[in-house]
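Worked example (supplementary).
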Amino acid sequence: MADMLRFRDDTAADEPVVSLDAFLEQPNAVSVRIEAGDDVERLFPHIARVKLVEVDFPKFRDGRGFSTARLLREAGYTGEIKATGDVLVDLVWFMRRCGFDSFAPNVAIDPAVLEASLSRYPYVYQHAADGAVPIWKLRHG
Amino acid sequence: MYKYDHYDQAMVDARVEDFRDQTRRRINGQLTDDQFKPLRLKNGLYLQLHAYMLRVAIPYGTLDSRQMRKLAHIARTYDRGYGHFTTRQNIQYNWIKLEQAPDILAELATVEMHAIQTSGESIRNVSADQYAGAAADEVIDPRPWAEMLRQMTTFMPEFSYLPRKFKIAVIAAQEDRAAMRWHDFGLRIVRNDAGEIGFEVYPGGGMGRTPFIAYKARDFLPANQIFSYLQAVLRVWNRHARRDNIHKQRMKILVHELGEEEFTRQVEEAFQHILGLGQDFPQAEYDRIAAYFTPPAFEEGLSDEIDRSDPDFAVWLDQQVVAHKAPGYAIANISLKPVGGIPGDISAEQMELVADLAERYSFDELRATHAQNLVLPHVRKQDLYAVWQALVEAGLANANLDLVTDIIACPGLDYCSLANARSIPVAEKIAARFADPARQKDLGELKIKISGCINACGHHHAGHIGILGVDRKGTENYQLLLGGSGDENTTQAKITGPGFDEDGIVDAIERAVEHYRGIREPGERFLDTYRRVGMDGFKEAIYG
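After joint prediction of all chains, the assembly is encoded as:
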């Protein structure tokens, strides 16, 4: 069982992770934690110094973090985005598509189930943050 | 009709395997019931009072004979020989075994059907005008756009866990036959002065315990920007809706709390950003989909004459058949509201008969309506008599479209674990009370809608007469509402006063209806009279 999953080749940041408010006050901070209710756009003026963004899912039914990740990627952020909290294996594929590239779930994930889940869908219908080519584009070349 | 290509088929097949795996993990204990619940809900599987219920999507209410026969087969093989058409143009089966659900989905996939996102906090099946492609008053056929929306909203990663459900309706006529403004996101296709196609956009509607009618946010959104606009709406809602109270998480609540102007401002801001990402579908994709919806090869030179010499046929003809855009053709409505029956229910044998009729007489097309009836959209007028005779044989020839016995009702406490009161027996009693065809005809258009709890699946807010079942100190009690509508002049029904018991509500409706008969002016429907005179006189008639 895996309690930490990472889909990046670079070295993980090991600086302390601070809250969004603290990050905005501490010019040396590089790792920030976005709670479900936080406005991630407040981070954008400082995005150049960010190495890690943790996005918390307090419960799996709270999907605000999906938009947080999309906004970060649309703002040009290429560093690590880690999903923490109530991360269920059946949602990891969607999270990957939104730009999450590491996962620290409360409850460890079965790697076999994850692998099957990530390879199950052969196509996607829309653009997202993962670079997958949508079906309409495959149809029209 | 749209046909899957290998991409669409691969996605639906993958969902079957996905769900099979999820069900396997539930049965072998890897998933708790709490963990499995949201997964099964995203695939239309509810746990009701007595068994699992599976809701199957009928995208924009369109299906063919092959699909209808498969639905009949599923009813016979996996259920108790019948199915139930819903108020969102879907069909549900009430007696499903969990371990068989993946097999049902596999059967559905063989006829290009699925149960994807038919429940749970997801973007639901897109509904549309049931007369699309046949109606004389439409700007264009709205179904290519509805199919575009189906594909856009299937497994949309950012919106995997929306605050609540999200319902879309698309129409393309001035007359609203789809209750468009009672949806979270209503679209009316219009043509601007330059001849371009676009959308009037109406966000923020919905029934439930806090009903709101959608407001107009855009007079004209260029059609090819719809994906960006929809994403903007969803993103604003997904980010800013409450997450602490499931009853206050629908988008309509956020619209209400922010105000329409501020909600629109935030959406427009998000829209400009998303539009710049260039993710909208190209015209070529619209053209590809639209090609599947080219009108059938209507024969030319057909007569518009119909032999009305059989008086029973003439009654059905006048009530169930409406104008078609092609000369010599008609739209035939099939009532699923027999007196004494359950609104929307249909047996496997009836499904097969209807499939045969579609194949033989209607270019192999059928429609389901939000009023829980069916439609043969393209029937030659000269074939109407044969169609009617076959419907008579099958017990499907009721002539009550939009009349007092054409009642919308949710499954209620007979099936549903959320319900506070039964809906079906009330619908049956009202239908029995007003069964006399002459009386129904005299009363004219009168839409009664019954919900067994405040979630409003039976659309009571939109009923000319609405009934809401509540639990009052352990007994079923029924509130009476008047003046709602789901048409182009959408209104929300108002409660008359104290509620009634099961027999009392039928008597109260009769008093309201007789009051209308007494004061109506020539040509006035019940709703028109109510709108002219207001609640007071009705209240007096009802409560004495």
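Two points are worth noting when inspecting this output. Chain A touches chain B at residues 36-37, 60-64, 66-68, 70, 74, 88, 90-91, 93-95, 97-98, 110, 113, 116-117, 120-128, 135-136, 138-140 (CB under 8 Å). The first strand of chain A starts at residue 5 and ends at 6.
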